[in-house]
């Protein structure tokens, strides 16, 4: 009661001050215009001014790229912040510059002389908030008292949170974000409240997922637009991807992983396995046209495809009118997924959707024409880049650079997004936190993106088929091991002198990760790489360490055995990576070298570990949604064998001829598991080699006997699994 009286008095005082404050503000100072550059266009080759071309007025808020072509010596220094003020250009008036910017619906680029910078003039007005949203008008009227009210609300929401009033805190937290959008902490508070506190109070996985995504969207799409250089807000967002979605602490974590993988599968499509192809795949989005006019200029016929599709959708009714947004892209991605899904072929979904789904039928009618494929791909790249920027606040160019420079990122994996946001926070905001008191914020953020790389090494190879309704297959990806070693050195050097042993904390991470890498490489039969890594560990942390240790002096076989002891209970991901590493070695070495006993041993080890893990009492926990929160991480043995065999066949680090041999030496049961899933990519690769001139693909990669029966059994199994899930959902709703 006492707290309520205090709150009421505070509100009455605040209201009085608002009225008085508004009366004391008869006029308000505002900017006379937006900050902009005046550029006189020159010939890019001769750098001679072109007088027939008007001087360009370029708003700094629309600039994407800005660089100096020729500098002049002068006293009129200029500093320009651009690209959401995350980049800075410095120079002088009179410099010849090259600038790329958005102008209406198109992207323009010119070379010219920087003649002036304007937009800072001030004027007095009585109507600076005319036409503005009500909350902006209120904030302006409050004036200097806004900070007092925000402080009060901030204290209030923290008190309510401590009392468990998570729903009630929503309105006040939202009000703070509107009154003080550059108060970064409240965005993190508000997003965490939705993603963590409110989500676990709901009754179904679907409801939980809605709240988790609401919290993430709030910070990613709003908070970071207002606070693009705040390291802590980037770290918070990255942590939610790594912990809430990719972790195992939430009962609904399987549902989160499945929904997230499906969403990004629809948005960007499946990522190619080969790293170079994956780089080219995301580069196509990074280099996409930024407007339909630009798309039409690049590939004539693109606008015609858009017009035909718009007309086809309009014919279905006003509710299907085409909007070039995320919802439209996901529907388009769903059509593409059906076209390429083995399960969809098994279940005959393409024909069923054509007959029953007018949107799907419209997509199929317009986009399936082979003559239009170049225009369709051009339009798809444009739409993907547009949606990423506008609805996910993600920069396709940065996504491309991280994929090229850091490692084979698959954007269907939550840890890829954890890496993206944490690394971006480091690049954008580290300079703000160079003081001794704040350096821990940068250290914590750097830990997040290094840990994301570790997680991708353990589970970064995804197998996603949205039509199957199964959880995504997740395999270890050894390609990340070298990347982690390289970037560990970067952060170690960066934080070597940081207070609190910053460098040492990264050394502990590096040593533990490399120990696990040795074990996984050994299990996978990569003996040479494992022995090199083991010697490397010994040189850094063993006999060559600052304090010499004999830890790495035992034979590597004994070391691997010692490492596994106790790891499966402490880190469930380790059990899964050992199963997959063993099976990968079995397929590659057992079949390729004609050593069937190696494959038999691998399958036996995988089966025993799977049975042990699922039968362990500490893992025998079924959550309220009917899923084994820990024991179902591995899945059954058949699923593991299927997923690993598919990855081995698509692994271009092995010659194609070797992979074809592995396929042909495998048993019919294993061939049937992989045939539909890998055939298209294997055939595409085969046709680009000299082998295609010597034999037919069907000879090199024959369909195994019994495929029709296998497809029917898979269809029956899929329907049964769907029925089980629906039964679980009904049970969860009743609870």
Topology:
Elements lengths: L1 H22 L4 E4 L4 E6 L14 E4 L3 E8 L6 E6 L4 E6 L3 E8 L2 E13 L3 E4 L8 H9 L3 H17 L6 H11 L4 H15 L6 H22 L4 H15 L7 H16 L6 H12 L5 H7 L3 H13 L11 H15 L1 H6 L1 H8 L1 H10 L5 H19 L4 H10 L8 H16 L9 H21 L1 E3 L9 E3 L3 H17 L6 H22 L3 H15 L14 H9 L2 H4 L1 H21 L3 H20 L21 H14 L5 H10 L2 H20 L3 H4 L2 H4 L6 H28 L1
Antiparallel strand pairs: 1-9, 2-3, 2-8, 4-7, 5-6, 7-8, 10-11
Helix pairs in contact: 3-4, 4-5, 5-6, 5-7, 6-7, 7-18, 7-19, 8-12, 9-17, 10-16, 11-15, 11-16, 14-15, 18-19, 19-20, 19-21, 20-21, 21-22, 21-23, 21-25, 25-26, 25-27, 25-28, 27-29
In terms of DSSP E residues, the strand content is 5-15%
| Total count of helical runs of at least 4 residues | 32
Low-confidence stretches at least 5 residues in length (pLDDT < 50)? 18-33, 120-132, 619-634
Largest sheet strand order = 3-2-8-7-4
Number of strands: 11
Helicity, as a percent range: 55-70%
Q: Major beta sheet, specifics?
A: 5 strands, antiparallel
The geometry reads as globular
Tell me what you see in this structure:
With 735 residues, the chain is of the alpha+beta class. Helix content is 61%, strand content 9%. It contains 32 helices and eleven strands. It has a five-stranded antiparallel sheet. The chain has a two-stranded antiparallel sheet with strand order 1-9. A hairpin with a 2-residue loop joins strand 7 (96-103) and strand 8 (106-118). The relative contact order is 0.06.
